[in-house]
Design brief:
By secondary structure, the chain is mainly α. It folds into two domains: 145 residues; 40 residues. 82% of the residues lie in helices and 0% in strands. It contains seven helices and no strands. The longest helix has 36 residues. The C terminus is likely disordered. It comes from Nicotiana attenuata. Vacuolar Fe(2+) uptake transporter. It is a multi-pass membrane protein. Belongs to the CCC1 family.
Length: 205
């Protein structure tokens, strides 16, 4: 049970986050290599966050005060017994790496010949949905769900959250790119054009 809790803790939310980051990057018309790099960078950046969260959870568990029982209950609810903290941390980090890498790896290594962005996004959506369904089902199990309806509610909750977040991320990335292109903030000046301007100014002088 504690191993399942650790897998859910490390993989569920991060799987959704990685999916949103990838959809946002894809909406900006970034090429496959850049999207893969962004996904890996997101993985590395999030590693510090999850490590900090694990440490904070352990510290809050070992703290003192009137709400010590609440702190203990929270640690046990999320991971299990404190004596197995090292096991929890290792399993959670492995889960984090595996599930966070699914979206960028699937996007980067599917449809290599055609490099069809729509097909790649569809493959990512299917793979990530399977991961989220699996992890959400495991989360319902760790919460002691004894009815099929509870499993369905948990899966629907995280599935809808992932769909909405990735959809908003895709739309936001698309409109931000259009806005930046319209304003011309990052338009590159051709080297030949710069030389022409310099030469014309010199001639006038």
């Amino acid at each position: 049970m504690e191993i399942v809790k650790s897998i859910v803790y490390g993989g569920l939310i991060e799987s959704i986050t990685s999916l949103v980051v990838l959809f946002s990057a894809a909406a900006s018309d970034a090429d496959t290599l850049k999207i893969l790099v962004i996904g890996v960078a997101n993985l590395i950046g999030g590693l510090f966050v999850i490590c900090q969260n694990l440490v904070d959870l352990k510290i809050s568990y070992t703290g003192v005060g009137s709400n010590l029982s609440d702190q203990i209950d929270r640690y046990q609810e999320l991971l299990g017994r404190k004596e197995h903290f090292l096991l929890h941390a290792i399993v959670a980090l492995l889960s984090y790496f595996i599930f966070c890498l699914v979206p960028p790896v699937v996007y980067g290594f599917t449809y290599l010949k055609s490099d069809n962005k729509d097909c790649k996004l569809l493959a990512v959506a299917i793979a990530s949905s399977m991961c989220i369904i699996l992890l959400a089902t495991a989360k319902a199990y760790t919460r002691g769900a004894n009815k099929f309806s509870k499993y369905v509610k948990t899966v629907l909750f995280y599935g809808i959250a992932a769909s909405m977040a990735s959809g908003v991320g895709y739309v936001a990335g698309h409109f931000i790119k259009r806005l930046v292109d319209k304003l011309g903030w990052f338009d590159k000046i051709q080297p030949g054009h710069s030389v022409d301007i310099f030469c014309s100014d010199t001639y006038l002088l």
